[in-house]
Amino acid sequence: MAARAGRGPRGERGAQADRILTAARKSFAERGYDRTSLRSVAQAADVDPTLVNYYFSNKMGLLKAALEPPDAFGEGIAEAAEVPLEERGRAFVEAALRMWDDQATSEILRSIILAASHEPFAMERLRSVFSALVLQVVSASLPDDEAQLRADLVATQIVGLAMTRYVWAIDRIAHMPSEQVIRLIAPTVQYYLTGPLGDDISENA
Amino acid sequence: MAARAGRGPRGERGAQADRILTAARKSFAERGYDRTSLRSVAQAADVDPTLVNYYFSNKMGLLKAALEPPDAFGEGIAEAAEVPLEERGRAFVEAALRMWDDQATSEILRSIILAASHEPFAMERLRSVFSALVLQVVSASLPDDEAQLRADLVATQIVGLAMTRYVWAIDRIAHMPSEQVIRLIAPTVQYYLTGPLGDDISENA
């Protein structure tokens, strides 16, 4: 499948497809779909323009491949979803920080978010990937009737952490040590996973 | 002050400046700074191009004015910050939902976020506005030593709620009734304002 070319074994072909994808992500994120040309992507990737067509068929194929989240993303969430329920809140926060602290992964996540902000198709992909790789995995890992609702709530907290700490890089949040972030945010995620929803946490605490 | 022209009394001049700002926000958000021209903004706003210079001096002046958050934004947060501490968590969530459910305000907030995603200057403005209007106001309303940290934590939750519900419009989160969102998220915000930070909420609950 052409769209997965960049994720296969790392031969010369895989390396070329990866260079094309990296250049494409940058262009889609910075200039949007309309202003991205296969020719300029090929030039930035230092490959012959015919190779872009060969690997990705056309511009839409290239966009779809560029919007594939890194394997580490789905894997990290799936792994965290297998941690015993009472420690899973911390596991999800740790997985999120690990992905965003990894430069290769965070560049891809960032470019997907940027592309989504000015490309309706990219936004649609972000929504469906997020539902499939995040909400479904998190909710499937939960035992109770409110599993879907709990997954949504976890998402609100972790997305907000990623946006303020990594995408917007709001001062203190961006510079806090990971261990402090985990200590502060994990209880909330754990509460969304297993707490009595909608109760007044402070009174109970 | 030219940059505030659109926010003064609503005479013919205020209305023209507002139309220019609306067109400029749309253009900066969709096309970015480089591809926005004063001429195309004037055309979209149906005003003479000289008026854009008259009100906003130049393209950077126009961008700065376009990135001013609506008055309702700062006011809403300041009002919520005056609610008695034990109910302030709910007040902040209500204020956030009110802003985002108001079409005029949410369009401006959305365009600021989009412009920030491909304009370093806009991102810098988003950061400083966020620090001044959100983090400082929230932390100033808190009595204890950890006021700044608590404001940061509140921000991670409310930004994540706004992104998933309004900007990305992730399925269930986007369609939940406001009252349910408030019931589910307010306890977390209240916990960040007044709870014992970093404790295991679930065990305490």
Short description:
Chain A is an all-alpha fold and 205 residues long. Chain A is built from twelve helices and no strands. The radius of gyration of chain A is 19 Å and the shape is elongated.
Helix proportion of chain A = over 70%
Greatest interface (CB-CB under 8 A), with counts per chain: A-B, 59 and 59 residues
Structural class of chain A: mainly alpha
> In what range is the share of β-strand residues of chain A?
under 5%
Number of strands of chain A: 0
Q: What does this 3D model show about the protein?
A:
The structure is a homodimer of 205-residue chains. Chain A contains 12 helices and no strands. Chain A has helices at residues 12-31, 38-45, 49-56, 59-66, 71-80, 88-101, 103-117, 120-140, 147-167, 171-175, 178-194, 201-204. In chain A, helix 1 crosses helix 7 (103-117) and helix 5 (71-80) runs parallel beside helix 8 (120-140). Chain A is elongated. The first copy, chain A, starts with 11 loop residues before the first helix and ends with a helix. Residues 1-9 of chain A have low confidence and may be disordered. At the A-B interface, helix 1, helix 7, helix 8, helix 9 and helix 10 of A face helix 1, helix 7, helix 8, helix 9 and helix 10 of B.
What secondary-structure arrangement, pairings included, does this model have?
The structure is a homodimer.
Chain A: H1 12-31, H2 38-45, H3 49-56, H4 59-66, H5 71-80, H6 88-101, H7 103-117, H8 120-140, H9 147-167, H10 171-175, H11 178-194, H12 201-204
